Protein 1
Amino acid sequence: MRVLVVEDEQLLADAVATGLRREAMAVDVVYDGAAALERIGVNDYDVVVLDRDLPVVHGDDVCRKIVELGMPTRVLMLTASGDVSDRVEGLEIGADDYLPKPFAFSELIARVRALGRRTSVPLPPVLERAGIKLDPNRREVFRDGQEVQLAPKEFAVLEVLMRSEGAVVSAEQLLEKAWDENTDPFTNVVRVTVMTLRRKLGEPPVIVTVPGSGYRI
């Protein structure tokens, strides 16, 4: 899952990003609304965690732009105000969910994951295919009933492949969904991660390489 965190309190923004990355999400961070609009114009995000009171361009205007563009991106709006009127206003602007500060990080994670499931064809919370069971909320993976321990990026790649439901996913798509914008696009990190993931999932291999196209399960 690719997430953009937009928050002008840099310590909070960086802490949120670090926590989301530990949950195997690819996260970019910006600290004002103008930078958010720039990133949204370049990258495809599943979820934007958007502070409402932003400098340069207000968070409300960022949200309106996402709606205006007809993007499938879901918006989780954050604000220091928990008044009902503020929540209603944020949702009417186009936010998909609303979370007042201060918030429990576990709730933020759950809301981001719930919104991520709504960016495409609805899928069940637990993904199952080819003997693999993947639970994004618990960050657990089982193959034929045996638990498989995966590093965050391995988990992220497997989740993208599982969500594709048998369709081929290119290396570029995996790079976009599982890594942030600071990753060198010419790196071989996708190939290396897929190789390690195959080894950990065991025999017979379930990740198929489609020459010239990418990977599928």
Protein 2
Amino acid sequence: MGAGHAHRLYRHGNSPVHRLPPHTKITAVLAFVLVVVSTPREAMWAFAVYAGLLALVAYAARVPPGFLLKRLLIEVPFVAFAVLLPFVAEGERTEVLGLSLSVEGLWGAWNVLAKGTLGVAASVLLAATTELRELLLGLQRLKLPPLLVQIASFMIRYGDVITDEMRRMRIARESRGFEARGVRHWGVLAKSAGALFIRSYERGERVHLAMVSRGYSGSMPVIDEVTASRAQWSYALVLPAAALVVCLLGWVL
């Protein structure tokens, strides 16, 4: 997989959560999200417990609340969708602050907000405690199709390269006095996008030829063999196991 690739969601640390093998954390987060989604929406107390469990994980990982809350802003579009549900959904209506809202829409909005927020929070904690390179190694260890792992790896590696190319093209346009102010400038932007596509395609061809010349035959060599002990698996699965108990109680009570 090559050298590590830092990302903005990652927070450097040496906590017990950081030291867990990546495939154990990926499995734990996936299992936790599945349990949360399976919880009945009427069991509101269960979602509060889930939030408490994630807070404990954040405390163990030494991830500050501000760091987590700032990155939760990514779910704003889902929040907007949830806010609209009570107004557009059909069925029985109820009055809330003088507004006629759908009861089913209110339950739907709560369902989206609660489960979506918990899922995003769990994903942010995973990204905050696991480097991108480790995530790829974890997916590889979990037997994700090798081609998908390679595609993800190249996307991560060359995403910044393409972004930097876009930045240089923007600086070149501005140095020549160009500033997009309306529809009449869309032609220039379209030509820039086309040039960027051609440059990216040509760069990809050069990279592929370089890989083939070095013996690439369709699969990447495994440099780091990531393993996990039984104790590490047990530690990682505490979160989904506790969530599963809460989910079962939510269906029973």
Protein 3
Amino acid sequence: MNQAEKAKAFGALHQKGNPVVLYNIWDAGTGKAVSDAGAKALATGSWSVAAAQGYADGEKIPLEALVATVRSITAANDLPLSVDFEGAYSTEKAGAAANAAMLIDAGAVGINFEDQVVGGSGLHPIDQQAARIRAIREMAEAKGIPFFINARTDLFLKFSDPDRHVPLVDEAIERAAAYAEAGASGFFAPGLSNQDLIRRVCEAVTLPVNIMMRQGVPDVRTLAKLGVGRVSYGPGPYRAMMEKLKEAAEAVFAAAGQA
């Protein structure tokens, strides 16, 4: 498949009630491992990609390094790749579109694009975030790529207590509607874990809803019954792998009498 066909195929994997499962990767090697395990598509996690190269999350990894990582993944793997692009490295719509174009040129077929102010506080106003989404959509259309823009809201991540999520749902639904109108392909609500609230969002939002697996989140089969269209794992795979690596290294050093 060419890139446009991969993008179309990736979009088709998102079905409400039959979610595509993305076990997040951070480089070409992990991409191959996850592909060999039976993945239908690949997706990076920003935290993981940054940590793997010694950077903190929050657009601390240089854009050029991120693009190089994307290029290496797509060169080594034929599966569609979505990139966690945080805030697109620009608060301006023109800059966001130009930066997203670099990912398309590197072979990506989609992005996560969040509405929090990276490096600041709070969220971008709805109209401003919608304008950035619209600019990215127009750029992708000009390139002939049905780019999957997974519009992420950070409303729920701002409050770790699930009990505080109830009054946030209306704004989340409002943001989803505005993002959809601007050209978003999916709606990502990381941090949301309550089953009733997940069902409410899925029923109200026209876009396929992405839920991130973490402690307290229902299993994939339950999420499917709630209407979720995409399930991802964020930094979980990286953290688990690094813990296993550390344990293995400690065992080696202990056996060698170096612990």
